[in-house]
Amino acid sequence: MNNFEQQPTDELQPYLHSIKGMQRAKAPEGIFDRVMEEINRPVARIVPMSRLSLVAACLVALVGLNIAVLASKSTNSRNNISPAVDYYGTSAEYGYSY
């Protein structure tokens, strides 16, 4: 006889008897319909104007900062062709044109 076929010991008897008479749980009537109704109910999500204004101001600041950095790099690249030119020599020596 393997372990699964053995009779329960006296220690397990109280636990096995404690579940006698238990039944499967049953959901209340109409629970599915109420859940589906709640899921399908439209929800109005209102964003406060102060938060929307803050997000817009941050985006404007970020775009402005990006434009300033790009303009600065553009000006620097016109004034200083390349730091590599100082190290390697003029661009004419290597056939590059800027």
Summarize the SSE layout with pairings.
Layout: H1 13-18, H2 31-40, H3 49-79, H4 83-88, H5 91-94
Plain-language structure description:
The chain is mainly α and 98 residues long. Helix content is 58%, strand content 0%. The protein contains 5 helices and no strands. The chain has helices at 13-18, 31-40, 49-79, 83-88, 91-94. The model has no long low-confidence stretch (mean pLDDT 77).
Q: What's the short version?
A:
The chain has about 100 residues and is mainly alpha-helical. The protein has helices spanning about 15-20, 30-40, 50-80, 85-90, 90-95.
Give the N-terminus to C-terminus distance in angstroms: 91 Å
Structural class determined from secondary elements: mainly alpha
- Counted by DSSP, the helix tally is 5
Number of strands: 0
| Model regions low in confidence, pLDDT < 50 over at least 5 residues | none
What key phrases describe this protein's structure?
5 helices; 98 residues; elongated; mainly alpha
